[in-house]
Amino acid sequence: MNLQYASFRTRLEASLAGADMRVLLMVLVHMTGNLRWLESPYRPKRDVSLIPDPSAGLPVSIQDEIRHAVADVFSPPFPRPVISDPGNDLMRRMMSTCLGETVPDEYAPLIREEMNLISRLPEWKSGRPEAASSTHVLIVGAGVCGIALAVGLKNAGIPYTIIEKRPDVGGTWSTNRYPGCGVDTPNHSYSFSFAQKNPWTRYFSQREEIHDYLRRVADDFAILPNIRLETEFLSSSWDEKAGCWISFIRSGGEIERVESRILITAIGQLSEPSTPKIEGAEDFQGQLFHSANWPDDLSVDGKRIAVIGTGATAMQLVPTVADRVASITVYQRTPQWARPIAGYADPISEANRWLLEKLPFYAEWFRFNMFWRYGDGLLPLLRKDASWTNPDRSVNRANDRHREEMIAFIRSELADRPDLVEKCIPDYPPYGKRILLDNGWYRALMKRSVDLVTTPIDHITSDGIVTNDGVSRPADVIVYSTGFRVDEMAGRLDIRGRDGVPLRDAWKQQNPTAYLGLTVPGFPNFFCMLGPNSGPGHGGSVIFQAECQTRYIASSLLQMIENDIGAMEVRQDVHDAYVKSVDDEHEQLIWTHPGMSTYYRNGLGRVFSVMPWRFVDYWAMTHDPNLEDYHVRRA
Predict the structure, then answer these.
(1) Residue 295 exposed, middle or buried by CB count within 10 Å (0-12, 13-18, 19+)
(2) Pairing of strands 327-331, 304-308
(3) Which residue(s) pair with 452 in the sheet?
(4) What pLDDT is recorded for position 200?
(5) DSSP state, residue 203
(6) Which is nearest to 381 in space by CA: 579, 593, 601?
(7) Which of 201, 229, 367, 585 is packed most tightly, with the most Cβ within 10 A?
(8) Mean pLDDT score, 283-305
(9) Residue 131: pLDDT above 90?
(10) In this predicted structure, what is the pLDDT of residue 168?
(11) Which DSSP string corresponds to 6-58?
(12) Residue 72 CA neighbour count, 13 Å, CB half
């Protein structure tokens, strides 16, 4: 036996003990082409857990048979898969068997792309035209969206430049450095479809691993030479006569003029911190900052920390530092719903890491499982039931069941502190705000060093915070854990479209709108990635959204170049009809629930941030642009 094969076989047999049976079955189908693995007695039991039992509910004897079959498949000579791409019909059958539930047909082509069994990126109809070389694209931001788009444009051979104000790529993962910062979506689905395999050490990775992954992708796909770091975007105006965008940027103290046929903002929705205006903040003598600006040299050991806010950041930060500080006072305006996730902080075993890296199709099907469990399955729980008799506490029967489950979890976690229970139970339906994952939050609240304050803040003094009841609590460090200015999006940039109209004026009254969350009337050849109503609200990840939008933008540019189009601008009627459909759909969902206050909504009560669609719907909407939706002008 070849030593290379022998070594692989030995490692494989040792790693299979903890493997996910449902994933191994799919590996066998790919490698052997034998569909008996999709039939009884091998069919996995349905498991709705977010991290499912790897046994898949199968008897031990069947599990052993599956493991032996996989080991035998990888005997020398090293095999090639019989089925690389199953096609739509077999793909749907495989997905349904893997999950133990019926998967609709429409998901098959989406998941084939999501597994990278087929490419998501568009191709030229008959080779790359010479005109592609003169279609320069300026991209603002080198985070998730900028990286995804750069890979798509590079694949098509379209020239581009990314400008990034920070000294590194990674966007929010470069900016946010607070203790405990991490992802709330499994990293096997919070990753690019074209770069799935990464040596993750946890199922929910910390910031450093996510940031390293993004840097590695930028390096591996050779987009770094096209990124100008520490370069600030100043302004951009559409030149109607020249048919291009005239932008001004600043780098090294020098201001430059840049012309580009296309302008794209890739700054997302979580790029500008939201800092509250609190009387006396300027008098504080300690350190005061937003969590997004956490000082690299700050040590919290032995200090009195005040955290204002109880959103996702606080829920990650507080449990991480609670045992290191002298005290930590948490100022809560609104309690949050949080779900317990078994295995949230668990490391991925060395054996499973090896399988994910080395075993063909294992990472792809593991990714599918995570995508499905954090995807569209939750959306029905967010739909209002007009006949539901308890709309003050939930929006439908399933939503109410989840409420009871989460309340039971809160009560069990805080059993020794009944005084905290009522402070921690929200008065709005579950998922009315993006659901949070429990990171030991409730257990942290019971520590002697932690104090949860629900009385509103009155003002800040030189050495602490005073609440409305006159109580003063000292602090050495005050952290604003108050989120981001989501309502501004690209409108905070100085971008002027046709006739010099600023984007911020087009989006007045904190009401940004865009066709497919991407294009705005009056702004030719302009795309705003992760724009209005394209944020994932019911699950999923921004990386999936970024890839959908990359496909749409790249496809649009290919059509422009192939059809000798100089400018494209979304029609007002198409934009308006789309926005109405978004609003109509949101009226059926939880985020427009009476009394619901969330950063997803503006002062008019309109949901402007998250999309109301299933991921498969948005994928279909953005897959193949229709130029009839646009006013087009020949080059």
Answers:
(1) exposed
(2) parallel
(3) 330
(4) 95
(5) S
(6) 593
(7) 367
(8) 96
(9) yes
(10) 97
(11) HHHHHHHHHHGGG--HHHHHHHHHHHH--GGGGSTTSPPPP---SS--TTTT-
(12) 8
Q: How far is 453 from 586, CA to CA, in rounded Å?
A: 33
H/E element holding 289? Answer: strand 287-290
Name the 3-class secondary structure at 150.
helix
Instruction: Find the length of the chain.
Output: 635
Q: State yes or no: pLDDT of 114 exceeds 80.
A: yes
CA 80 to chain centre: 34
Instruction: Using DSSP, state whether 409 is helix, strand or coil.
Output: helix
Pairing of the two strands 630-634 and 565-570: antiparallel
Q: Which two tokens stand for residue 516?
A: 């497919």
Which pLDDT score is estimated for 90?
98
Contact between 515 and 631 under an 8 Å Cβ cutoff? The reply is no
Give the span between the Cα atoms of 50 and 461, in whole angstroms: 45
Give the Cα separation of 555 and 75 in Å (integer): 43
Q: Assign 615 a pLDDT band (cuts: 50, 70, 90).
A: very high
**Residues 165, 252: Cα–Cα separation, whole Å:** 11
Q: What is the pTM of this model?
A: 0.95
The overall average pLDDT reported for the chain is 95
Question: What one-character-per-residue DSSP string does 442-463 give?
Answer: HHHHTSTTEEEE-SPEEEEETT
- pLDDT over 90 (residue 465): yes
Residue 442 in tokens:
């409730």
Query: Does the pLDDT value for residue 100 go beyond 90?
Result: yes
1 has a pLDDT exceeding 80:
no
Chain mean position to CA 498? 32
Contact criterion met (CB below 8 Å) for 318 and 309: no
Q: Give the pLDDT mean for 347-375.
A: 95
Which residues neighbour 18 within 8 Å (Cβ) at sequence distance 6 or greater?
54, 349, 351, 352
